[in-house]
Design a protein that fits this description.
The chain has helices spanning 5-15, 41-47, 50-62, 71-84, 123-127, 187-207, 230-233, 237-242, 267-282, 308-328, 368-394, 399-402, 421-432, 485-509, 514-529, 541-550, 558-561, 568-576, 582-635, 642-672, 675-695, 706-709; strands at residues 87-94, 102-107, 109-111, 117-119, 128-132, 148-153, 160-164, 167-178, 215-229, 287-292, 298-303, 306-307, 331-334, 348-356, 359-360, 417-418, 467-469, 474-476. By secondary structure, it is of the alpha+beta class. It is globular and about 105 Å long. The mean pLDDT is 93. The structure holds adenosine-5'-diphosphate and magnesium ion.
């Protein structure tokens, strides 16, 4: 038996037999357990007195302020429900600026007298909590002497149960802020941005005679991920520590044959997906679509869209459930944007729309008035993205996503909008005041005419566009697979709110015929912001040149992409809409920059460590064996074989020298600390190690190879 763990892992996967298909019904074929781990509307009604339930539901469903006097009742009901589910602990569950989620469990235990205890949970425990904030990133918001952080219940996202092998925990979604009330999380600004957008939209709708409607902002977040067998994962210190492979030679076959996308899902993966869905459904998360993605071993999970705040919480849970369930199935789920060089990376497409009284405003309407609203909102979004594309870009920055954006497989770092042929033609006709419509030469009169029918799913869906109109929603494709969508959605809401207000301001200032004014206004908007519209190939070099001519920002890496967060004009927008104070925005910049530098440094250190302690010994050993063999062959006067031995030892020796030089270079770069030098030195070292991978005896190569991780599972 081989001593190489890598070969051992291959053999154990080879021995594993897939399960035979089962004829049994799924555990919950009637969907009766959907949402059973959520303290939702049904549970609220079942566990609370009628009047209290009504009050709480008014907060949950209509956003009415929470009546604090019901907190004790609600806490009590939640506890009873959670205990019946096997919960022993509760936690405030929040999203600190690490990008992940955080929890600190407290048991329900309350001692009573000697050696006795009851289980208790008060309104105070429910509504607020104190957490030591000093070990969470605060980007300068929290002074070290003021370490306290506070969590505050978000009743609009329902409490839920997280199960583990020995019980369960009641999780209460919360916002997280400092002693002085500054947001230390991603949820607080998101909630503020939704408020701002709702207000701005109501103001605009008043112009259309509908002032008091119910606004909903929705998100459908498509989650891409990779699965690798844990037998391989455990032998890749780079995957373990950084989420991506810093070495790995390209395999002969990767995704050239385009045979993975939408391919038949392998039974072992399907078994994993089925369990993921079962857990998600119990959590009330509407997992809908599952399929193989473009790269080998890459997959996607898409839920049905939901209220934005809830959808963000749900996406955080989706990532967690994917990771934990993968472990149980002997997989590791990789959420990094670019785990493998040379194959597609993973994104998180954020599908966003706004509805008014239940009608999606990004859906072309069936009458002139609905269409006028549709075109106005659409134009406002175009204006917003054009004016603030730098902010959208900033919120997709990160060491991981830098490998993906613009890498000829994901949208470029230049933010532009794709509208599709039909809608582009409509916009053109508004802009020029002439009709592009087939029937007749009359011009499209906003508020009077109906739109020509726009096919919902146009076949020319442009996959290269970072921000695409897809029939009734915008799909923002730049966000990375590991990122919290709250950040980019917060920006989108804020800049659209600002644009809607700009439209309202203009309409307020205009006298005379409303429709004629609107027509003029939209014409001006499109003329001013059409430079952000682009239907062509976003991967082409010409587009980068053309975009530069149009003055669109092209910010290729994190340090440049986050600079707009320091722009006073941008600070003003966030402050004006009460989404982020100047200090809160500055803290996001500091955290993003620090996170970036730390990650690059960790990657560099891991690469150096692997190269020196795992790769070099194997190369050195093989080289010395060859050298010995060569000198023995010479001594014995052998005629054949020596030239081959010699050629190989020359190549290996050169590789060994090269490895030494590149390691020294990376070591120096790490000592100096500049990220550009570190990245360059890391890339350089990678070329050497990857070349050696092809040269060294396969049985001794210590790192699982791409052809194994991507194909053997
Ligand atoms: P594709 O991969 O072609 O983009 P998917 O069906 O995988 O399409 O994902 C589309 C996502 O968009 C789903 O999460 C879906 O629920 C969501 N979606 C559909 N309509 C809306 C809408 N009006 N607002 C927000 N998201 C939406
Ligand atoms: Mg999509």
């Amino acid at each position: 038996m081989s001593k190489n763990n890598r070969i051992h892992a291959i053999n154990s996967i080879a021995e594993r037999l897939p399960d035979a298909p089962s004829a049994a019904l799924p555990a919950d074929s009637s969907m009766s357990s959907y949402g059973e781990d959520v303290f939702g509307e049904k549970e609220i009604r079942a566990f609370l007195p009628k009047a209290t339930a009504a009050k709480l539901l008014a907060t949950v469903n209509e956003g009415k302020p929470l009546d604090p006097s019901i907190a004790d009742d609600v806490a009590h009901a939640m506890k009873d429900w959670a205990l019946a589910k096997g919960a022993t602990h509760f936690t405030h569950w929040f999203q600190p600026l690490t990008g992940g989620t955080a929890e600190k469990h407290d048991s329900f235990v309350e001692p009573r007298g000697t050696a006795q205890a009851v289980q208790a949970f008060s309104g105070k425990n429910l509504i607020g909590g104190e957490a030591d904030a000093s070990s969470f990133p605060s980007g300068g918001l929290r002074s070290t002497f003021e370490a306290r952080g506070y969590t505050a219940w978000d009743p609009t996202s329902p409490a839920f149960i997280k199960r583990h092998a020995n019980g369960a925990t009641l999780c209460i979604p919360t916002a997280f802020c400092s002693y002085r009330g500054e947001a230390l999380d991603s949820k607080t600004p998101l909630l503020r941005s939704v408020q701002a957008l709702k207000k701005a939209l109501r103001r605009l709708m008043a112009h259309f005679g509908q002032p008091d409607g119910r606004v909903s902002v929705t998100l459908g977040a498509e989650q891409e991920y990779f699965l690798v067998d844990r037998g391989f994962y455990m032998q890749r210190p780079d995957l373990l520590q950084t989420g991506r492979t810093v070495f790995g030679a390209a395999p002969a076959k990767h995704q050239q044959l385009e045979d993975h996308y939408y391919g038949a899902i392998r039974p072992r993966v399907l078994k994993f997906m089925t369990e993921v869905e079962d857990i998600l459904w119990k959590l009330g998360i509407p997992a809908k679509t599952r399929h193989n993605e473009v790269a080998p071993a890459q997959f996607e999970l898409a839920p049905v869209f939901e209220d934005l705040n809830l959808a963000v919480d749900h996406n955080m849970l989706v990532m967690e459930v994917l990771r934990q369930t993968a472990e149980r199935h002997g997989f590791e789920c990789l959420l990094h944007e670019k785990p493998f060089e040379g194959v597609n990376g993973s994104g998180k497409h954020c599908n966003w729309s706004i509805a008014y009284n239940g009608r999606n405003l990004l859906e072309p309407g069936s009458n002139p008035k609905e269409n006028a609203i549709f075109l106005t909102v659409l134009s406002a979004v175009i204006r917003a993205v054009d004016k603030h594309s730098d902010l959208l870009r900033a919120m997709t920055a990160g060491a991981g996503n830098d490998h993906r954006l613009g890498a000829n497989e994901a949208p470029p770092a230049i933010i532009s909008i794709f509208l599709g042929d039909e809608l582009s033609a409509v916009m053109k006709s508004i802009e020029t005041g002439t009709s592009a419509r087939a029937e007749g030469r009359t011009k499209l009169k906003i508020g009077v005419d109906t739109l020509p029918p726009l096919p919902r799913d146009t076949t020319d869906r442009n996959r290269t566009s970072p921000f695409a109109f897809t029939g009734n929603k915008f799909e923002f494709r730049a966000p990375g697979s590991s990122q919290n969508c709250a950040m980019n959605q917060m920006v989108l809401n804020t800049i659209v709110a600002e644009s809607l207000d700009a439209v309202s301001d203009k309409l307020d200032a205009m006298d005379g015929d409303f429709n004629a004014n609107l027509q003029k206004l939209l014409q001006r908007l499109i003329r001013a912001h059409k430079r952000v519209l682009f239907s062509g190939d976003g991967y082409s070099e010409n587009w980068a040149k053309e975009a530069a001519r149009r003055g669109l920002p092209n910010l290729p890496d994190t340090p440049s992409a986050i600079q707009p967060l320091r722009d006073p004009a941008n600070q003003k927008v966030f402050a004006a809409y009460g989404v982020l104070t100047e200090g809160e925005l500055a803290s996001r910049y500091e955290i993003a920059l620090e996170d970036y530098h730390r990650r690059i440094r960790i990657e560099g250190s891991v690469a150096l460590d692997i190269a020196r302690s795992m790769v070099r010994p194997v190369v050195a050993d093989e080289f010395s064996k060859l050298a010995t063999a060569l000198s023995m062959a010479k001594k014995d006067g052998l005629k054949t074989g020596t030239s081959g031995l010699k050629a190989l030892s020359v190549r290996l020796g050169a590789g060994l020298d090269d490895l030494h030089v590149k390691c020294e270079r990376l070591d120096k770069a790490l000592a100096k600390g500049g990220h550009e030098e570190q990245i360059a030195a890391m890339d350089d070292l990678r070329r050497t190690v990857d070349a050696l991978e092809h040269l060294v005896d396969d049985a001794r190569w210590p790192l699982p190879k791409y052809r194994e991780m991507l194909f053997i599972y």
